[in-house]
Amino acid sequence: MKALVLENARTPVIKDVPVPEIGTDDLLIRVKAAGICGTDVHIYEGEYFSEFPLIPGHEFSGVVEQVGKNVRAFMPGDRVTADPNIGCGKCYFCQINQQNQCEQLEAVGVTRNGAFAEYIAVPEHKAFHIGDLSFQDAALIEPLACVVYGLQQTPIPIGADVLIFGAGPIGLMLMQMLKHAGAARVVIVEGRENRRALANTLGAHHVVAVDGTERDMLKSLSQTGFDVVVDATGIPKVVEQMTIYARNRGILLYYGVCPKNDTIRISPYEIFRRDLKIYGAFALCNTFAPAIRFLQNQVVNVTSLLSHTFALEEFEEALATMRSGNSMKVQLQPD
Ligand SMILES: [Zn+2]
Ligand SMILES: [Zn+2]
Q: Which residues form the Enoyl reductase (ER) domain (predicted)?
């Protein structure tokens, strides 16, 4: 089969590799759509814990091609996606159902071969039916499941006044979910015009540009600050400023992935004096089923988040498009 293999950091090669062999409890899936995300960029750059050679790709959908003999819930021809994170099942965190903190977490497209290929093999217990969702939408279930998990970790008060930094694909999923979760208002700050326009279309109550006046603008929108402040940029300087915009007793959600070794300065006294709470959320944990329900019931629109589609052979162009910032979600179509 055709696959995009990262032979090493920054060394992608399209090549012919054997179709993955499946075990008795696995599915072989013909990949129809596979999203590129920030994690893939980190893997590409060699800044992640992945080892090479590796076929990346952890946000995907496709059609079941073949099933192992113990597989019960799937048949060839079924339209599916899969949760890429595979816990060891044995460690303390797996035992208490917190598999995203598994001490030996495996992830499709990160520690084992992923979806930037014609076929991928996954264990049956990680696969989900997608019904009549489009393959493009279904390849966004994984990032939506991460957003669902993040909000499950964060107690959002009904009627909250919410501020989000960053209107990329994740920021706009957070925005839609927070509205549904009971926020009375969601304000979003974004530097790029195309992303601000999309934030407006998808229902942000206020969209604020980054032009040097944003601090005054945000103060005028809420004198006493916001109940919930979310970072979806992964930029440490932005995260460092979040306390300024939080109301006393407010919640800060550090959602965007900052570079691993960066640090920020915050005042512990301020956290104490102002009753602030800081939350983090890593990846997802058993949240594929609710993410699929949110899409099937049209609570969240992910269709508008897809801006570009490329063939497998165009991976480097796809990556460049993604890094240019003039895109939203970029997907590959191996088929
Ligand atoms: Zn991802
Ligand atoms: Zn484990």
A: 9-332
